[in-house]
Every structure is written in structure tokens, then in C-alpha cells.
Specification:
Shape: globular
CATH class of the largest domain: Alpha Beta
Helix content: 40-55%
Order of helices and strands: EHEHHHHEEHHHEH
CATH superfamily of the largest domain: P-loop containing nucleotide triphosphate hydrolases
Radius of gyration: 18 Å
CATH architecture of the largest domain: 3-Layer(aba) Sandwich
Number of domains: 2
Number of strands: 5
Mean pLDDT: 95
Structural class: alpha/beta
Strand order of the largest sheet: 2-3-1-4-5
Length: 205
């Protein structure tokens, strides 16, 4: 095998991607989190943070100089052009870091690995992966989770969800779908089933 096979994990905001990624990791599959890479791309002292300040001003910073993600979110989710400008700053760094990570893996030990990329379809990165797993839940479940998790109003929650492709559009394009409206145990069973299928693909090659 010449390289670790690339599997993408995606879905909508607050559909449970992080939980699903953690379950794959627990079962021995290497994973990488694009949200974490995005935070690292705009950490204090990085070119990414400097570019964000140049574009959005110092009003998006905390008093000590780190990025205030809530203030920035309020700007970019209300303005498509602002959101695209932020993505143009962050996405190249995330993509490069993801590429380095996959290349660092030993295919003999890790025949496949998973990258959690929330905006996979929106930015056309699905073409970079052999298979795509979509984590999905009902839109009303997403709204409730965003409000509970982020302290957002219902309007803000719906605004953030609307900034992404509708979840059922992603489901239609997926190779595998994991639905998270049920219990953790139900989600875990779906993760195990997808892992079994991915392992069978590996064994069949």
C-alpha cells in the first residue's frame, strides 16, 4: 500500500461531528480536527491572526491580543463577504497542515485515516478524499444544540446553520451517513458499522 487512504468526516454545525470523530479515534483510527487546525492558524503571533486583524480590525481581539471568536463569528455569519474573506485566510493553512499530517502516517500501521472537515463540500475538498462520512441530525436538533452549546439566540443559530449547505444535500452526496438524533449508544453502533465497512474496503484492495 503506497499511502494511507484518506477519509473525510463532515456534516452540519452541531450535528455531532466531534463526538463521532472521537469514537473513531477511540477505536484506533487516526483522526485530525480541522476546527483545531483553524484555531492554530490564527493563534497569537501567527500570520493568520495578523491577516485577520488587517481585514477585520482590532475589535475582534481579546484584551490580551488573542482572537475573540464570538465577536468574529457575529461578523462573519452576518456577512457572506466577510465569511469568505475569513475562509480565504484560514483554509489554505488548514489544508497544508492536513496534507502534512496524512503524509506523516505509516500506511502499514494506518491503512486509512479520517479528517474532520466541516466545510468539505462548501469548499470543494470532497474531491481530495476516497470516501466521505456525513454526520447528520434534524435541523431543529441543530438549532437547539447551537443555542445550548454557544449561548446563541434562535435567530443566530439559524443564521449559522444557513451559512452551510443544507444537511440533506450533504447526506445525498455522502458515502456513509451517521445520524445523531438518537442516543450515544445508537450513534456508537453506526460508527462501528462504518468502521467495519471501511476495514472491508481495505482488506479487499
Amino acid at each position: 500500500m503506497s499511502a494511507t487512504r484518506r477519509i473525510a468526516l463532515t456534516g452540519g454545525i452541531a450535528t455531532g461531528k466531534s463526538y463521532v470523530r472521537e469514537q473513531f479515534e477511540r477505536l484506533g483510527v487516526p483522526t485530525i480536527d480541522s476546527d483545531q487546525l483553524s484555531r492554530e492558524a490564527v493563534a497569537p503571533g501567527t500570520p493568520g491572526l495578523a491577516a485577520v486583524v488587517e481585514r477585520f480590525g482590532r475589535g475582534v481581539l481579546q484584551p490580551e491580543g488573542s482572537l475573540d471568536r464570538h465577536k468574529l463569528a457575529a461578523v462573519v455569519f452576518a456577512d457572506k463577504d466577510a465569511r469568505l474573506a475569513l475562509e480565504a485566510i484560514i483554509h489554505p493553512a488548514v489544508r497544508q497542515a492536513t496534507e502534512r499530517w496524512f503524509k506523516s502516517l505509516d500506511p502499514a500501521r494506518h491503512p486509512f485515516a479520517i479528517a474532520d472537515i466541516p466545510l468539505l463540500y462548501e469548499v470543494g475538498r470532497d474531491r481530495d478524499f476516497e470516501k466521505v462520512i456525513v454526520v447528520a441530525s434534524a435541523p431543529e436538533t441543530q438549532v437547539r444544540r447551537v443555542m445550548e452549546r454557544d449561548g446563541a439566540s434562535e435567530e443566530e443559530a439559524r443564521q449559522r446553520i444557513a451559512a452551510q449547505l443544507p444537511i440533506e444535500d450533504k447526506v445525498r452526496r455522502a458515502d456513509y451517513v451517521i445520524r445523531t438524533d438518537g442516543t450515544c449508544e445508537e450513534t456508537d453502533r453506526q460508527v462501528s458499522a462504518v468502521l467495519k465497512e471501511l476495514s472491508a474496503l481495505r482488506e479487499g484492495c
